[in-house]
Amino acid sequence: MSGPNTDYDPVEVTPLKADEVEAMREAALAAIAGAADLAALKQVRLDHAGDRSPLALANREIGALPPQARKEAGQRVGQARGAVNQALAARQAVLEAEHEQRMLAEETVDVSLPTTRRRRGSRHPLTLQSELIADLFVAMGYEVAEGPVVEAEWLNFDALNLGPDHPARTMQDTFWTEPAEDHVVLRTQTSPVQARTMLTRTPPIYVVCPGRVFRTDEYDATHSPMFHQVEGLVVDEGISMAHLKGTLDHFASQLFGDGITTRFRPSYFPFTEPSAEVDVRCFVCRGGDGVAECRTCRGEGWIEWGGCGVVNPRVLVACGVDPEVYSGFAFGMGIDRSFMFRHHLEDLRPLFEGDVRWNSAFGTEI
Amino acid sequence: MKAPLSWIKDYVDVPAHVTTDELTRRLTLTGLKLEAVESPGREITGPLVIGRVLTMEPEPQKNGKTINWCTVDVGDANGTGEPQGIVCGAHNFAPGDLVVTVLPGGVLPGGFAIGARKTYGHLSAGMICSARELGLGEDHDGIIVLPPDAGEPGQDVRPVLGLDEEVIELEVNPDRAYALSLRGIAREALVSVEGADRFRDPAVRDTPAPNADGHPVVVEDPAGCPVFVARKVTGFDPTAPTPDFMVRRITAAGMRPISLAVDVTNYVMLETGRPIHGYDADKVQGAIVVRRAREGERLTTLDGTTRELDPADLVVTDDSGIIGLGGVMGGETTEMSGSTTSILVEAAHWDAVSMFRTGRRHKITSEAGRRNERGVDPTICEAAADRVVELLVEHGGGQAHPGVTVVGSPPAVPAIRMAADLPQRVAGLPIDSRTVVASLQAVGCRVDADGADVEVVPPPWRPDLTDPQDLTEEVIRLVGYDAIPSVLPTPPSGRGLTRAQRLRRRIGRTLAGEGFVEVVSFPFVGASDLDDLGLTADDPRRDLLELSNPLNAEAGFLTSTLLPGLLRTAGKNVGHGNDDVAIFETATVTLPRHAGPAAILPVDRRPTDEEFAALDAALPAQPLHLAVVAAGDADSGGWWGESRPVTWADAVEAVRSVAAALGLEVTASAVELAPWHPGRCAELSVDGEVVGHAGEVHPTVCQAFGLPKRSVAAEVDLDLLMARAVDLRRAPSFSSYPVAKEDVALVVDTGVPAAEVEQALREGAGELLESIRLFDVYTGEQVGPGRKSLAYALRFRAPDRTLKEGEAAAARDSAVALAAERTGATQRA
After folding, report:
1. pLDDT per residue over A1-17, tens digit each?
2. Which of A245, A268, A327 has its CB closest to that of B174?
3. Does the domain formed by B2-39+166-192 have CATH 3.30.56.10?
4. Residues in chain A within 8 Å Cβ distance of B357
5. Is A302 in CB contact (< 8 Å) with chain B?
6. Which of A113, A219, A276 has the CB atom closest to B481's CB atom?
7. What CATH class does B499-723 carry?
8. Out of A199, A223, B252, B490, which residue is the most buried by the measure of CB atoms under 10 Å away?
9. Helix ranges (DSSP H) in B342-479
10. Residue range A246-287, pLDDT digits in tens
11. Does residue A361 belong to the interface with chain B, where contact is any CB pair within 8 Å?
12. What is the ipTM score, two decimals?
């Protein structure tokens, strides 16, 4: 704000005349309306609302007027400046919106461009299959038990009623470690975990044990020296084969589809008596009309799935469980085999070849 | 076990409406699983008929052979009723004989299609067949001449030759040795097929009473050989052929016909399950003595192998020495041959465990051994020997010697006491005691009810029935496993996965999220794999657990590190064109503890806690490891810019990600360790404990595994890492007062680890320091040779107030001062 302008003759202050102010206002509004972009508007703002704009200059003159004239001139100039500022703000908003729209349009990209810079990771299908099975049983209240892969001979065989001269020992071609008198083997089955579980827990016991096992099988489309099993063990009062059947029926339907049941056939395992082979209803043909042509079950309507039975009381005794009080059931299934059925894999070798194209096909959940 | 259906039906009547499918389904459901149904004639199609030779004209040929131009009456089988003209090269027949004729349109085994063709100047319309041409054995000396009563010309010859025979192959579990015989299978058919009837036991026969005229036999080890029966046949015609039915049945059962004498012993073994041995009686010198072998004794067995015997082996001896490995394999010196006219027949019961051990020791698998080691009915030695004598006499024209030697007697079978309700408790299905008794009787047990219990004496052919639980299985399998209801048990409330199990899943997911693909490898390695890793001679990872029987001699050890397998797999991927590969594996490794033997504990009681702990202590350590390997690009190039190759830092970062997932922070320090680049290997620690290593793989190692240079790898002990995982994390709180930022650039010698500089800055900055980040590393002219500049961004904040002017700068200065003191750092101008 400048001080009283004593050098001027107030009468001669033309800028404050009504028509002059009106002209300034009109000129400003016209310039604002005419500003095509934000840069032009910036100039218009300087020209018509800046410190050296006619209205600003006029405003500066007001103080030089006689007091009686100030009010009217002040009002006139103030209104004009207000109108100009309002117009500027409105124009600014319009131009900014236009600008933004133009910028956004200019920034358009080809969203169909590839976006993957980093290779995608995955988990092994057998890990996923094991976890899926574990989860099925955990949902029923079971726990997941574990044991070492390099195992004591006693736990892999003797404790499971496979004495040193049991013919069944020849059924399982065992990897032995040196020196032989150390009695250490690569476990041929997940069953030693049964023994470990009974030795470290007290009934009621409800566990599953997925894990790696080894047999001296030459590696081919259907055999591998290393494969995966899941063992189930229940020890409780009053456990019967009916409970075993119920559990495996549930397991089968969870893994292979609603309505898929199991069939038991008498068999022989030293650690169970009675023992049974478990067949699962072919989940492709379901033993129905297409059974004769079914490639999955080779026309049988059933697929061999695993072995099971009532825990042999001799095993309970060796593991410190009183067979007079408790009974139990156990079962063992091939995880690799189950995976092969579910996913229609005929040659197991890709499971162990580690080709990242194959392994990553299953992502992180199956 | 393969069994011709007609043979089974010799011993049991099966109702006519029971098809082969139904019979085998029933056998499968009661425990003899059907493997396959075969028919010897399955490869023969088209007309195969009886023909009567009407005329035969021998016609000598230029090539020196004489062929016969024959006319053969084939009835109406050729559609005309006219005789069929056929050229035949064999001469073992005459006009009037009945022969096997295949007519044009027929196909013989091997896809041999028969047509009418011009040969030796005739149109030969068909063929007169030999046994070999029909797949019925090796006999090709002449054509088959059928017995005169075989049938009428034109009639299908298949039933006559047994070509329509169905042979069922059954899987026999080791507890059911009795089913390794027709006798046993017929008995199973009897109990499992509804309506099967009239079991005729081939091992029940009148046998001559033992007398003193037989070959002298002394059994010095009655426990090893409880029963020894010897019979003799003299005047045997060694050229007598094996009758056709016997050849067919032995062949169908999967054995090879050899000579009448051998075939008869095999036939009776198949029939009764009792292995029989025949000696050339003229070569046996003096009394037979059964005993255990002595140290240093040897025997050349029938297969021509000379074996060093073990004092535990049961042997059959005569005055000349050892003549057989009892129950397992005979010796060469007394072997029956083409000139044997006198046969000594041995039917002996052997101790199953000795059989098993001897078979395993000498790596002999034989049909006899398979039965003897699983347990044979000890009561049928006399019957089986008598049956052999009968067949040798009948088909070999010999005479049965009146002498009958029987030494020893079958061991008594102890009775088993079982609660009558045990089967129903085990099955979870009501089974009344009447059914229990009937089922046990059906399988041959003697059963006496005694209150709530039954007293059961198993039949002598079921040595597997020793416990109440065994009897239970018999009852339930006859009631039918398919009758068992499906009932879900009710477990107590579970505790879910253990913490370690959850952490392992978390680790796998973390690495998958970081772009690594999980692989599963075999744990077998050889010394050369460790050489490829560049391990020094004294590297502890060279201490490996050796396998006694590896599949591959090059990989005869269990690995102590996951790297060889993982590097190999990565190399294979690169070889397949998967250039950018990042893989991981989690598995246990085997670290020998050389802690001595794992005891074989008793099984009639629980091991003590000390015994159980000692078992575990005797096993090698098996920590869970994680390894990662990456090669090629970490980030691929594209429209966004250049690709980024993997570097040592990616390997370290993979471990840091895993550690972070467990709530842990890893510190890295330089170390030299194979298989890593000596200047680019980080030793990774958590709370001062080394958990693993990561970095760039040594170029020589890369080359050895087929990987490009600058591939990277890491291996950590997950057990160590997981043991430190933060369990219950406290909720954090953050100050909302303003932050003060200070940057410093410090110049140090190139050899000074950034981690040390950072540590000094942290400590020097004091409590106000909120975070510190190294944002630039510079080497070059401005700092001079052998020096580097590390630029850090420091953020300061107080938890309870706004920092005063100069407070942050003062903290920064003391941080720099400590770094200068510890690392010789100077602030960059």
Report:
1. 455 555 555 445 566 78
2. A268
3. yes
4. 165
5. no
6. A276
7. alpha beta
8. B252
9. 352-361, 367-374, 381-396, 422-427, 433-442, 468-479
10. 999 999 999 999 999 999 999 999 999 999 999 999 988 888
11. no
12. 0.87
